[in-house]
Amino acid sequence: MHQAILKAWGREMPLPTDVSFTTVFAPFPLSARLSFMKNLTTTVCLAVALLLGSGGVSQSSETKMGPSFDCGRASTPTEYAICASATLSMLDRALAEAYSVAKEKFEKASDNLQTLRDEQRHWNKERSSTCGDHVGCLSNMYERRIKLLQGNDLDSGSHTNCSNEDREYAKFWDNYYHPEDAYQFGEKIKKLVKEENLEGLFSLVDGELTSGLRKRFIKGKRFSDIFSDNWINDLLTSGSPCSPVGWRGFMLENGSIWFNRTDGKWRIFSINGAKEEDIRGRNADFGEWRHKDNIISPKCFPYEYWSGDNFEAIAEHYSIEYSDDFSKNMGKYIGKEIVDFEGIPEPWDGGKYHLFIIRDLDTCPHIKEEIKYEKLKGIVTYTDRDPTVTDVYQIRYRKVKDISLQLCEELAPNFDGTCVQSSIFVIGDWAGGSRGFAWRTYIYGLFKAKNDRDYIIPLKSWFGHSKNDALEFYDHWKSAQKDCAKSTIEYMESGKCITE
């Protein structure tokens, strides 16, 4: 018993690499970051359980509350973890019961009982080699195996859809997903597409898609109103994935649908290639903003870097707490905490460059050769041909929709000027490599200040390619404006309408 305690405390518990990358397409779960704490909790709980057991806990009590096996004979990290966790012990007992029931059904049906036994032995080995003492991974494997046994889907071969390479790759991502679960979720999506079940497909989306249609747009629509026959056929003939495309998530048919497992749930986060919603209106200006007849360079649009370093440095310079509120609602700080608009020297390269959160368009450089406007796509791209770090450095933006000038001014209540143009944009930068463009969604305002200078101010932001969230915010604001015509933002936040 004491040797078991020493073995538990002596186990090496390295802090795993945090793989919770957040991107336009999808955020990874917190399991990697929590793994170390789970391991620590497992060890402490095991030690306490073993000490209590040595103090006289009866064998019948341990059998009742523990797993299906004798914890006194535990010898592997997996068995230690199960004995130390009430949840895993409960799942182990449930699995033993489900296995027993399945054996009885197989005997009555005169099926191949040996196949069931072989599969269970294989699963036991896979459980230990895949999860070790990772509580979350073990829980996922137990839950899936119990469902499989209870469904009696034991000869379907579903456990062989994914390879050992897929399982090894899942280990690299700290086993936040099980390859077979990913495959089955892909098959579930394809089944809904085959049935042309539009409501069922969008029920797998939390909130709004990062790329694709808004939920309000599909109401009252038929499946054929949204997806073409070619789109449907291509998706149905594609294979379901067992592994993600790196940190981006899982995809079907070359990115027609993207999905991932977040907070313990499989969810779709992007659907591409569907009929697009006309959000601009037929006569709306498509893509570029202009100043003095020149297309405004993407370099003149302040935005938060992928790392957040620039906004963090700006917040520190002005003694502002660097927080979600500052990152998402920066417009309200302009003219209050931030009262000078010449930028600040960046702190990490000797002040060689300046960082901006508000940009004076008269001082922002405009070189036509560095700007490309793709009118059909509505994309404006700035390219630095002589960057300091990468071979080609680009920033690009695409205007999504013009919005109310009243909302623009409500989002910058402390700036002494008049909003003359405001739009929802997606803007991103690319610094080479496989990451692609790192996107954010912003509401920008073009202001005429009292000193007769023109400024671009970022007013509100959403991480990633989240134009649907921005559009929903704008629709919500327009709806709230009917109840409170002035100070609508404050009304949305507090429920109080200021009439004067």
User: Over all CA atoms, what is the radius of gyration?
Assistant: 28 Å
- List the uncertain runs: 1-63, 153-158
Strand order of the largest sheet: 8-14-13-12-11-10-9
Please, how many domains?
3
* H/I helix tally: 18
Report the oligomer.
Answer: single chain
Mean pLDDT: 80
What structural category arises from helix and sheet content? Answer: alpha+beta
Estimate the global geometry from the Cα principal axes.
elongated
Distance between the termini: 75 Å
Say how many strands there are: 14
Largest sheet: 7 strands, antiparallel
Determine the strand fraction and express it as a percent band: 15-25%
Helix content: 25-40%
Explain what this protein looks like in three dimensions.
The chain is α+β, with helices and mostly antiparallel strands and 500 residues long. It folds into three domains: 2-160, no CATH class; 181-271, no CATH class; 290-494, no CATH class. Helices cover 39% and strands 16% of the residues. The protein has helices spanning 2-10, 31-54, 59-65, 77-84, 86-108, 113-131, 135-151, 164-172, 179-194, 198-202, 215-218, 223-226, 229-236, 309-317, 324-328, 405-411, 467-481, 488-494, and strands spanning 250-252, 257-262, 265-271, 290-291, 294-295, 344-345, 354-355, 359-360, 371-374, 379-384, 393-402, 417-430, 438-449, 454-463. Strands 8-14-13-12-11-10-9 form a seven-stranded antiparallel β-sheet, with helices on one face. Strands 1-2-3 form a three-stranded antiparallel β-sheet, with helices on one face. Strands 4-5 form a two-stranded antiparallel ribbon. α1 (2-10) runs antiparallel to α2, α5 (86-108) packs parallel to α7 and α6 (113-131) runs antiparallel to α7. The longest helix has 24 residues, at 31-54. The model is unreliable at 1-63 and 153-158 (pLDDT under 50).
